[in-house]
Each structure stands twice: as C-alpha cells, then as structure tokens.
Fold these 2 entries.
Entry 1:
Amino acid sequence: MHELKEIVLDFIREIERVNFADNSDIKLLYNKAKGIEMQLISVNYIGKPSNINRLIEITEKLDKKIPDIMVVRIPEFKAVTCGSQPWGEMFKEGGYMYQLWQYCHLYKSVIFDCFDFLLSENDKAQWICAVKDGVTNADVSPFKLFDFPGGLYAMAVSIDEDNESIHKVEDKVRRWVESTNFELDKDRNVMFNMPYLYEDGRDIAYRDIEKGLGYKQMQRYFPIKLREGI
C-alpha cells in the first residue's frame, strides 16, 4: 500500500505541473496515466494480479459521490427516418446524412439543442430527425415519418471517431447499469448523437466547446427500464 501511495502522490504532482492549454503536456500526462495503469495491473499483490484489479473495481463502485453517467428521459416525438441502412451508406458523399440535412428547416430540437439520433442496429443503422408539428410525409419524401416512443436512457459522453473511447464508455455504462435498480431495455436500440449541431458553423456553442476540449463530443444513449419488482 505504501508503494501505491507513492505512485498516486507522484501522479498528483504531475497533474499540478501540467499546462492544460498545451497539448504536448496533456499527451505526456496521458502517457504517465497509462504507465501507472500498467504498474497497478502488473504489480505482484500477494501473488495475484487479479486482486489489485478487483480492488480498483470495488473502489470505482464505492465512489458514488461523483456520478458521471446521467439518466435522461427522451420524450415521444414524430421523426423522419432514412430506414435501416448499411453504415457506409450514411456518411459517404451524397449519402443519407447529406440527404436528411436538406430538410433541416423542418426539424426541431429534442435534447441538448439536437434534433437527430443515430440508432445502432447490429451491422446497420437508422438515422432519425425530429420534425416540427404539421410536417407531413409529402414534406420529407422520399423519406417517411414515424412516432418515436421515447423513454429512459443512461447517457454518457465519448470522444467522436475514437473507437477506444467508445468501447470503454459502452463497457462502463453497462457495468454501471448492473449496479443500479435499472436494467437494459432490449426492446429498444442503443443510439448516439452529437450534443450540438456543428455542421457549417450552425452552432457557435459547439464550436467553442470543441476548441476548449480539443475533440468532438459524442453522446451515447443506452435504453433502460426499472428492474421488475422495484
């Protein structure tokens, strides 16, 4: 435990010296953190490395004073959908994202100033956008309207276009759900979006957020419901 204390204190001193406006300093801090992670995992703790892993896991679960996962209720809304499509068809030039964006003037915000969600459907995905009252199928042809049911979601932030970040966040949320009175709702899809519309500089707030963080945020929504008997 004395060795662990020294490792932690050394890392705290590193943090105090970091200039968070300097990307090179941040990268050095990240590399330092990864090195500490490897030390903790590989340390010979009573001959069983799994024990220290278990200690870290228990510590994380006990620290409930700093929740980093938010439960939100997304309301019901009428949406336009491109239907279930291969991932590659979404983002290519002239693809479904581009086509859906032609109807931006018909859309309304749902949560965090954002009107769209991308639903994960195994090897395919479905992009949906909330529409204003009075919009008809004729207005969004050749796409179709449908009623999105809404519901409760466990929401967490990952780094856009960073698969390691996405996978770690997904794993953390699933483990977190197991520690609550919720369970994943398998009748609904995991979905995600960018919290603020940033294309073509439409939202100045998002541009400032990206400059401040140095990356684009991606919010992931995991459908949840109360466990039976709660």
Note: The helical segments are 2-17, 23-42, 49-62, 87-91, 96-100, 137-140, 163-178, 204-213.
Entry 2:
Amino acid sequence: MKKLLFVSLFISLLLLGGCMHKEVNHPLTLIQAIKRAYPDALKWDKDARLIDAKSVDGDKRITRMNGKSSYWDITFGIPGTNKAFLVNIRDGEINNRTDITDESVVPLSDAYFITDLSKLKFDSPELLKKAMSTTKLYPIDTRKRRYIFGISKATEKDSMLVKIIGWDKKEEKMKRLQFNANTGELYKNAEGD
C-alpha cells in the first residue's frame, strides 16, 4: 500500500513539474540565437548568409539585464539576389520559419552579409556590461528592465556591429550604441546629444 501511495505521489509530482516547466523562458545571447537559427536557414538554401539579428518584444517574465533574450528575429538571404528568410525564436526555441523573398526589393551585394561568425568575439552580455558602465546606458523600459540587442554589417568598414539600445538616465533620449563585434570597441554612440 505504501509503495502504491509513493508511486502515485511520484507520478503526480512529475506531471506537476512538467506543467510548471512550460512556463520557463530560455533566454539566449545574440550569438546563441544566431547559431540556433542558422541550421534552418541552411535547410532553406545551402548558400544562406546572415543579414541581421535582433531581440524583439515578448519577454514577459524575465529581464534583459544579462544581455539575453528569449525572443529573436534572425534574417538570412542570398548575396546577389532578393531572396530572404526569417527565423523567429520564441522562448529560446525556433518558433517560425518564413521565406520573406520580395521580388520588388533590390538584390543585396556581398557587403551586407555577415559571413564569418568566428569573428564574433564579443557577445551581448559582455557588451551590455560595457555599455552600462562606460556610457551610462539605461533600460528602455524600467518596469520590464530591458534593452534591445542586434547585429548587422557596417558596409563601409567591413565589420560586424552589435547594437544595444536603451535610454539616457532621465529617459528623455534614446541611445543606440554600436560595438565592433571583433574588438569590443565602441564604434558609434548615437545618443542624439
């Protein structure tokens, strides 16, 4: 009888734990999100290359004070064409894959694509710490305590730029900082000052 009670209690706890587990977010850094999305892009087309990535609204239970987000949009394309592919990550997992090719868009040259991920030496957590300490960057939503992260290519310098968006201390001016993803150096401080 005690064994039956123990087994019933054990199964109930497992089921309850499984239900509670669904509520947990799985935040990813910028680089982790790109690496999670890349295999899907390569299934879409073996020549797919990264165009950009950005964190998007959706985090309701966690903050982005650690440089991570559970919600990302990662865009890929094919150089010299107007072919494009979007991978949505929600709760740290692939949520949706969509071909977003638009025939009316001018084809992008190689200069717009991030081709060598091994050059990404600095990720969103390290750069957020740097942004908060050196430029006094504050969350864009103090209640949710979040920042916006992204990456794109600076075509004129042929470098990858990690973007972090927040506010000044008084929450009067939005600040967009761009860091060189290879060196970690501040590339551009677009504060509007």
Note: The beta strands are 49-55, 72-77, 84-90, 93-99, 148-154, 159-167, 174-180, 186-190.
